[in-house]
Amino acid sequence: MLSPIEISKRQRTRSTHRIHTMPVLILMAHSRCNCRCVMCDIWRANRNGQEISRETLERHLDTFRRLNVQWVVLSGGEALMHSNLWSLCEALKTLDVKITLLSTGLLLKRHVGDVVRWCDEVTVSLDGSQAVHDAIRRVPRAFEKLAEGVGALKDLAPEFPVNARCVIQRQNYVDLPHIIDAAHAIGLDGISFLSVDISSTAFNRPLPWGDERVDDVALSPNETTEFERLVERTIETHARDFESGFVAESPDKLRRLPRYFAAINGEGDYPTTVCNAPWVSTVIETDGTVRPCFFHHSLGNVHEQPLEEIINSPDAVAFRRSLDVNKNPICRKCVCTLYLGRTTPVGA
Fold first, then answer.
1. How many CB atoms lie within 10 A of CB 248?
2. 3-state secondary structure at position 301
3. CB half-sphere exposure, 84, CA atoms < 13 A
4. What is the CA radius of gyration of the chain?
């Protein structure tokens, strides 16, 4: 349960649009990635790589403490490509925080000891059964390396939570039930699904994608109809996985995925957005850029201003005050939302 002070701070943040408490911090620890996925441009734009240094991180630890950061998500790129990720974790663990590592899984086997020591959970990317996953990742033996990493981690610490996130797009939508089966087969604790992002400039896209790139990953009207039927069949055939929570989404939430692709094709509205990420979280990129979430514009840079000045600048407060997530064009098409209630503990 949250303390009365923390509840009060969250309420003040929502009423004043000034950040009094920041439960979630996303650190893009390293900019490069070791995959070549068709639905992502991170690997195209960061061949040399940047990373957050411990020195940079330590300058902001007191701010994280004052803002009562409770959950740090290590993202990228591939965070495990950082030259010394564990020094960052050591610094973060001077705070009372939960650390989640997001990873492609390709390097997981090499780092299992440090992962178990410094992190509280891992979320890996799983795009399909073996052949489908390898085709999307465009890395030899990607599925095999992922499975070996998960196996090594579970051998070392059987109770350590390892879940998967799957991005649904043209190359894997028909594999939906087999993706769930693959998650079981490699020993994961659960899996969640989201639609491919085709509209934003996130993930190192200098400009939104043109029609040709969108067509590579988005579903056509006929494919969307096929996917809708497949979702219903999967809800029936994998009922136990929904009931147990192995599939993180409820059946109704999973049905949002074909609705999203239908909206892309001009057939109906995008699913209603429920998100308060700009009020409860902050993203710090490898170059120091600060964003209210992955998708919205930069608020500033921690190499130029203190973090608290950035997130509570007049422009940042005005942005949150005017933001209606169900009307904003970026939010309406968002595929990756976050919602923490005023009394919801992190991770609940």
1. 16
2. strand
3. 8
4. 20
Cα 17–chain centre separation: 24
Going by C-alpha positions, the residue among 164, 83, 91, 175 that lies closest to residue 132 is 175
Q: Residue 46 pLDDT more than 60?
A: no
Q: How far apart are CA 286 and CA 29, in angstroms?
A: 6
pLDDT tens digits along 229-281: 999 999 999 999 999 999 999 999 999 999 999 999 999 999 998 999 999 99
Closest by CA to 102, choosing from 42, 155, 57, is 42
Task: Tell me the pairing of strands 24-30 and 300-301.
Answer: unpaired
Which string of DSSP letters, residue by residue, matches 120-172? SEEEEE--SSHHHHHHHHTSTTHHHHHHHHHHHHHHH-TTS-EEEEEEE-TTT
Cα torsion through 107, 109, 112, 118, rounded to 10: 10
Predicted confidence (pLDDT) at residue 57 exceeds the cutoff of 90: yes
Question: 105 by DSSP, 3-state: which?
Answer: coil
Tokens 């400009």, residue? 207
pTM of the entire predicted model:
0.92
Beta strands in the chain (DSSP E): 24-30, 71-76, 98-103, 121-125, 162-168, 190-195, 281-284, 289-291, 300-301
HSE of 69 in the Cβ direction (CA atoms, 13 Å)? 25
